[in-house]
Design goal:
Elements: H1 6-11, H2 17-29, H3 35-38, H4 45-51, H5 55-68, H6 79-94, H7 99-106, H8 114-135
Helix pairs in contact: 2-5, 5-6, 5-8, 6-8
């Protein structure tokens, strides 16, 4: 499972929520990203450092982009439905995709955002599984 990699990246290596999702997604889905490539999502943590859209959500969308976009998003019929499904599922759990709304629901000082990352992993896996199943 994707969230089995959470300990490796979030706990042991102290990556933030977005960095954890992109690194776990890269490893789990064999996306072919290099260490330097994954740094691009570092600023997404803590809701783009401002409490805005959750970094785990943004990194999840990045994983989906790597899986479903060949060249350009507007040339991919796959990316919109799969991202929209992910957003719906996040909203169903937290009634928001904003860090400032999610954090009070799941942040614990001793675990930080671990619960949110676990939820993001579950949602990402579910969305990908559902989409792959619908395409076959």
């Amino acid at each position: 499972m994707l969230k089995d990699l959470l300990e490796k990246y979030y706990i042991n290596q102290n990556y933030n929520c977005a960095e954890t999702i992109i690194r776990a997604g890269n490893e789990y889905y064999n996306l072919g990203l290099h260490d330097r490539d994954m740094i691009m999502v570092a600023a997404y943590g803590a809701g783009i450092q401002s409490g805005n859209t959750c970094g785990a959500v943004l990194a999840g969308a990045s994983v989906l982009s790597m899986k479903y976009v060949e060249s350009k998003a507007h040339e991919s019929e796959d990316i919109r439905p799969v991202v929209m499904n992910m957003m719906r599922k996040f909203n169903a759990v937290y009634s928001s995709t904003l860090c400032k709304d999610i954090k009070p629901q799941s942040f614990k000082p001793e675990y930080r955002c671990q619960k949110t990352i676990e939820t993001a992993c579950d949602i990402l896996e579910e969305v990908i599984h559902e989409y792959e199943k619908s395409k076959s």
